[in-house]
Design a protein that fits this description.
This protein folds into 2 domains: 205 residues, Alpha-beta prism (UDP-n-acetylglucosamine1-carboxyvinyl-transferase, Chain); 210 residues, UDP-n-acetylglucosamine1-carboxyvinyl-transferase, Chain (Alpha-beta prism). It is of the alpha/beta class and 423 residues long. It starts with a strand and ends with a strand. It binds uridine-diphosphate-N-acetylglucosamine. Uridine-diphosphate-N-acetylglucosamine binds next to helix 1, helix 5 and helix 6.
Length: 423
């Protein structure tokens, strides 16, 4: 693994145009779902990211052929002879767990490593397993692996998928993907409504699945006998778009985002407006303008259509420079605050109280060497560095490379001064 660092000189004001990439979190479960339809599926607009390569490697290990070429991923799932998700891959990427549902549906058996610890806090998979058990799967845990069988096939059921923090995105992906080939009717209540799940459901429909209620918390699935391969373009990445909106806000900049979906970002845009940042819809995206110091605002992360937890860190960075106090409450991952101590090293004034952080706006952030801890926390450090006085060194940039395609190139094209160095 290359241990690159970013050297970021600030402060800068970002202006210009950015093209948002396809959604990583939509592409991952969709790649997994192509397993359900024997043959060659083609996915377009897939970002060139390490997580996507890991998912392709995972499906190749199952016996599929996968190739990535300039945003197009082709998966030939004609043969699957090894329904096994190795610990060595799953430990690199938690989202590997989303092969569980598709493999059960296609092969009737699967063994996938149980995902381990994670920088953003405790992340169990009990909801995934509960949903699959309700479809008739027999599941046990053996030597760190989830071992599941569906002898005689899966059977439709009424399933409640809510958990202590509301719906679960990947549990919905797993149970939905498993149910499309189950016998009879499945109703999933408290399904996740994230646009990535809607995109997955649309793909499954293209494959021939019968699904209604797409985009709502109740999905009804009528099982079919077989599915056909598809061609599909994944939705734009709303978290990347939200990160660039935050980048414009923190640098008092003006950015035009191409290939972004305003309708997927309503809670985020609402917060930006209350921070005194203007966001207008354009033909293929939006334009964000921030001229003055941000007003403070309170943010609570929630399942979609609420404010996304994946933008909590980036918005905390912005609010560090707002004129007044803000409260950020994390309702999805209550321990997702690794960035708090790093932002504090850059002279932010933050106080953590359980799952809340009180952000007292400061006049300036000051550059410092900082450590990226997870994907979105590292994006927050990059944003803070763009607005901070001096040269910030962001260590462990590989975290950011998991989820942002060419981030330094995109930011530099708009006036940032970011240099990548391999150490
Ligand atoms: C997905 C996203 C991640 C995002 C998260 C929440 C992908 C690849 N990842 O992760 O970027 O931050 O949604 O929007 O799409 N939970 C349980 N038991 C379970 C499953 C989840 O208690 O079996 C809890 C989690 O700990 C968390 C909450 O439910 O508190 C929501 O997590 P979930 O939606 O499942 O996150 P992921 O799907 O893993």
């Amino acid at each position: 693994m290359a241990l690159d660092i970013f050297k970021i000189s600030g402060p800068v004001r970002l202006t210009g145009e950015v093209t948002i990439s396809g959604s990583k979190n939509a592409a991952l479960p969709i790649i997994a779902a192509t397993i359900l339809a024997p043959g060659k599926s083609t996915l377009c607009g897939v970002p060139n990211l390490s997580d996507i390569k890991v998912m392709c490697q995972l499906v190749e290990n199952l016996g599929c052929k996968a190739s990535i070429d300039n945003g197009t991923v082709t998966i030939d799932s004609t043969n699957i002879d090894n329904p096994f998700g190795d610990y060595e891959i799953v430990r690199k990427m938690r989202a590997s767990v989303c092969i569980l549902g598709p493999l059960l549906g296609r092969c009737g058996k699967v063994e996938v490593s149980m995902p381990g610890g994670c920088a953003i806090g405790y992340r169990p998979v009990d909801i995934h397993l509960r949903g699959l058990r309700e479809l008739g799967a027999k599941i046990e845990l053996k030597n760190g692996y989830i071992v599941a069988h569906a002898n005689g096939g899966l059977k439709g059921a009424n399933i409640f998928l809510g958990g202590p923090f509301g719906s679960s995105v990947l549990a919905t992906a797993n149970v939905l993907s498993a149910s499309v080939l189950a016998k009879g009717k499945t109703i999933i209540d408290s399904a996740a409504c994230e646009p990535e799940i809607t995109d997955l459901a649309k793909c499954l429909k293209k494959m021939g699945a019968k699904i209604s209620g797409i985009g709502s918390p109740q999905l009804t699935i009528k099982g079919v006998k077989k599915l056909k391969p598809i061609e599909h373009t994944v939705i734009p990445d709303r978290i990347e778009a939200g990160t660039f909106l935050a980048a414009a806000a923190i640098t008092k900049g003006n950015l035009k985002l191409k290939n972004s979906r305003v309708d997927h970002l309503m809670a985020v845009i609402d917060k930006l407006r209350s921070m005194n940042v203007t966001v207008e819809q354009t033909k293929d995206g939006c334009e964000v303008v921030s001229n003055s110091l941000s007003k403070p605002t309170d943010i609570t992360t929630l399942p979609y259509p609420g404010f996304p937890t994946d933008l909590q860190a980036q918005f905390m960075a912005c609010l560090c420079l707002a004129k007044g106090n803000s409260v950020i409450s994390e309702k999805i991952f209550p321990d997702r605050f690794m960035h708090v101590s790093e932002l504090s090293r850059m002279a932010a004034n933050l106080r953590k109280e359980g799952p809340h952080v009180i952000v007292s706006g400061v006049e300036k952030l000051i550059a410092a060497p900082v450590m990226a801890s997870d994907l979105r926390a590292s994006a927050a450090l990059v944003l803070a560095a763009l607005a901070a006085q001096g040269e910030t060194i962001v260590n462990r940039v590989y975290h950011i490379d998991r989820g942002y395609e060419k981030i330094e190139e995109k930011l530099n094209a708009c006036g940032a001064k970011i240099e990548r160095q391999s150490i």
